[in-house]
Amino acid sequence: MDLPSPQLAWIDGQPLPAPGGATFATVDPSTEEVLAEVARCGEEAVDTAVAGARRAFPGWRDLAPPERAGRIRAVARALAGRAEEFARLETLDTGKPLSLARSEVDGTVRYLDYYAGLADKIHGESIPLGPGYLNYTVHEPVGVTGHIVPWNAPLNMVGRSLGPALAAGNTAVVKPAEQTPLTALRFGALCREAGLPDGVYQVVPGFGTEAGAALAAHPGIDSLTFTGSVATGRAVARACADRIRPVVLELGGKSPQLVFADADFDTVAAEVAKGIFTNTGQFCDAGSRLLVEESVREALVERLVARAHAVDCGPGGDDPDMGPLISAEQRDRVRGFLARGEAEGARRLGPGPESVPRRGYFVPPTVFTGVRPDMAIAREEIFGPVLCVQGFRDEAEAIALANDTSYGLAAGIHTRDIDRAHRLAAALEAGYVMINEYFTGGIGSPFGGWKESGIGHERGLEAVHNYTRLKNVVVRVAR
Ligand code: NAI
Ligand code: MG
Q: In 3D, which of 418, 416, 458, 404 has the Cα closest to residue 255?
């Protein structure tokens, strides 16, 4: 693949080096080889990007909504036409299986189309105040939106928040994760080719503590959308608090998958395995805790361990079942949890470390049994292919275990009892509940966390209002 090095920031429709020419390396996690050097942006580059986005804002805001929709759709068509190229680039930068990268690029196209369709439907209401008054609301764009994006689904997560931000008439500055800047950057050039006005989509690659912190604290952005860890979420929320600026936080999870004895046993093992092994467990809504009714616990664990042994791990480009983790840091972090689980007395099942390639940041798919609720592996987000199994005797215990977490992002329920399914859906403290299929829903479904999993929702119709501000106009009509 043609990968000029260094890869430059994308500002005002042009590639731009970081001041002083500083760079950092991005690596292929499947091979541990450097793919390219990338512009290492800091305060100065962020400043330039925000200023350009500010200049582009009035023109973009004032486009007639159908025209704005058309421009976003043109970007969607351009991406659809080059989907394979972007999927391959994503696979190189993340190590994820090619099929998964393809589906994420398709999802990005869908985000753009979905929100393009909303651009001319972001309307307010009129409020009856009695004769002699006209009272109406308007949803105006906020201005320049900041987006700090993680590495687990890089381009897809750009699309998720960029779509509604642009549709609402904002311009955007995006800070991709330092592990995976390549697709967001190439997308900048694609936007220009597709006719998006310069400055509407700006990209500042760099480290979190440099480009990320500079963007979060910048006085020239009017909202911030962040996806990543709780600790960094707190830091960017503080920066936003200082400026009384709205922030959307999509943070981690420790999402339970609840399995009852009456569930369809043939599909349930596949669903549970999909929920934790897809993307090597690196999804915020990974179903990392299996809570299973005691009477079927052993049988289900047996099936899951068999599935773990059958998972084929390899370089993303070979399109295996499971690729590597994103980085040496994440691999060491997950290995740390594996060791800690064993040290705390849990039983580790599944293929051993010798089963995965030696080169690349691989860890084997793992199932822990004998997990107590107070263990670190049961409480902390591991962000790897590690499933923790706990048994329950009845519905009440299932609910108590499921809710015994500081997180509240997603939950899966597997049962054929429709009453139980809805009782549980009501009782679970999670923003997203999936019944009898994990990762179900799609981009029209509002997605957001309760508790420490975040603030606000992405996806769906509502997400557009992360990027609007409400104005109420009241008129006293002369008689
Ligand atoms: P992180 O939260 O530090 O990184 C996410 C994004 O924030 C990246 O673009 C990063 O450059 C940026 N960032 C980092 N520090 C920043 C700062 N001080 N100011 C502004 N931006 C900053 O996450 P990291 O360290 O890559 O992963 C650690 C853990 O976070 C993972 O093991 C996982 O548990 C969780 N995580 C959750 C994600 C999710 O989808 N909710 C995605 C990525 C990580
Ligand atoms: Mg990389």
A: 404
Mean pLDDT calculated for residue range 317-336:
98
Closest protein CA for atom 12 of ligand 1: 208
Q: What are 103-124's pLDDT values in tens digits?
A: 999 999 999 999 999 999 999 9
Same domain, 236 and 262: no
**251 C-alpha to ligand 1 centroid (Å):** 9
Is the beta carbon of 253 within 6 A of some atom in ligand 1?
no
**Residue 114 burial (CB < 10 Å; 0-12/13-18/19+)?**
buried
The 3-state secondary structure of 179-200, one letter per residue = CCCHHHHHHHHHHHHCCCCCCC
**Residue 3 forms part of a structural domain:** no
CATH number at 98 reads: 3.40.605.10
In the DSSP assignment, the letter for residue 154 is H
Query: Mind listing the pLDDT tens digit for each residue in 184-221?
Result: 999 999 999 999 999 999 999 999 999 999 999 999 99
The range of the structural domain enclosing residue 25 comes to: 9-251+453-472
Clarify whether residues 170 and 264 are in a common domain: no
Q: Is 26 in the pocket of ligand 1 (CB under 6 A)?
A: no
State if pTM tops 0.85. Answer: yes
d(CA 185, CA 166): 17
Nearest atom, ligand 1, residue 235 CA:
18
- Are 41 and 127 part of one and the same domain? yes
Residues 84 and 215 in one domain: yes
Q: How many angstroms does the Cα of residue 385 sit away from the middle of ligand 1?
A: 18
Q: Which residue, by CA, sits nearest to atom 27 of ligand 1? A: 229
Instruction: Determine which residue's CA is closest to atom 30 belonging to ligand 1.
Output: 229
Is residue 463 domain-resident? yes
For residue 358, is pLDDT > 90? yes
Give the tokens for residue 150. 């993680």
- Number of the ligand closest to the Cα of 336: 1
| 432 and 330, same domain (yes or no) | yes
Residue 478 is assigned to a structural domain of this protein: no
What's the pLDDT band for 265 if we cut at 50, 70, 90? confident
Inside any domain, residue 4: no
Q: Is 337 in the pocket of ligand 1 (CB under 6 A)?
A: no
**236 CB near ligand 1 (under 6 Å):** yes
